[in-house]
Amino acid sequence: MIDQKTMEKYAELALKTGVNLQKGQPIMITAPIETADFARIVVRKAWEIGAKDVLMNWVDDELQLLKFQHAPEEVIGSFPEWRIKQYNSLAEEGGAVLNIYSTNPDLLKDVDPKRIALANKASGEALTKFREYTMTNRITWSIISVPTGDWAQKIFPNLSKEEAIKSLWDAIVKIVRVDQDDPIAAWEEHNKTLYKAHTILNEKKYKKLIFKAPGTDLEIELPEGHIWAGGSEKSTEGITFNPNMPTEEVFTMPHKYGVNGTVSSTKPLNYGGSLINHFSLTFKDGEVVDFKAEQGEDTLKHLLETDEGAKRLGEIALVPHESPVSQSGLIFYNTLFDENASCHIALGKAYPINIANGSNMTKEELDKHGVNDSMTHVDFMIGSEKLDIDGVLQDGTTEPVFRNGTWALDIK
Predict the structure, then answer these.
(1) Distances in Å between the alpha carbon of 143 and those of 7, 97, 117, 243, 376?
(2) What mean pLDDT value characterizes the chain?
(3) DSSP letters spanning 342-396
(4) Which of 88, 218, 357, 406 is the most exposed place for a label (fewest CB within 10 A)?
(5) Do residues 224 and 335 share a domain?
(6) What's the structural domain count of the chain?
(7) Same domain, residue pair 171 and 187
(8) What is the pTM of this model?
(9) Which residue range(s) make up the domain with 109?
């Protein structure tokens, strides 16, 4: 285990820099029961900061697996009305949301992918309104992770559970900068670096990005008025927060009809407790027209069939290969971490904040601007030390953005 002082620092970082909890604001925390010791520290500190209320959602991998194994299909394909009301009422009250995400990557490996797809579709439809609050920054939210036994042993299979948990704690503490004397100040400096990166990209106003690597030859058009973001964000109420901890990315949206070519994954994708690995997608006019996977192909198929928007891209994110997550040398089997080791793209819904005035546009206006809509948003990793990216400027000239997996622009 990790020492009490470090857990206290991490909890404080999640509340003050992650969601930036305000006095008098309610907060909803979701955490695995295995992380109860850490979660209780977070709850205590939330009360100490002055939270109006602290709502706790406990989750348990074993109970989830039992449900998938035994529940009738109509239950798998439904989402409780009381939970919808819980999420929506918290959002309407301007609450903060902190998710401690630490799922066993192999949890549902033996479950029929159709049942997983049913559950994902049900939750996607049920939480549409809540997702609008988060993806337009109408509330503050953040995702962090702490070790659980099964997850840790997936990363460190040759260690005992206790040793694996300790090793994963050591990696996480370093990656999220909790090992530093003042993690909050360290994150302020880190956010400044990411701000510089997306400011430079916004000044470029690229028309198109071209990705080339082994198994990847992809062109992505960027919509007019697209906006690069990354690091800290501001809610519509003006509160600065960090949605992901760790984060090493700057990101924007593609034009939903402007993606052509083939892209190959470089890290496993843990999708709803089922792994998809060594897969590739081929796009034509923005839509996936062919796909294959060495592992989890049926799961990938069901993901793409979630709705029409699931076959199109909603995000492009640039992450240099020398990021702390990448330099750890670990595959985390957890998108929160793996996406911050590698450039990645996302199937599904785009963030309206990534286009000028997008948070105030109707669905029809967003669609007219080439903004993808879906009930899902799934990131997968395409970056490596072999990735080159070129940017096509407004006058048609091309310049290097990434070479050999890192910035070719003067970002540092």
Answers:
(1) 16, 9, 23, 6, 17
(2) 95
(3) S-EEEEEPPPGGGBTTGGG--HHHHHHTT----S-EEEEE---TT-EEEEE-TTS
(4) 357
(5) yes
(6) 2
(7) no
(8) 0.88
(9) 4-175
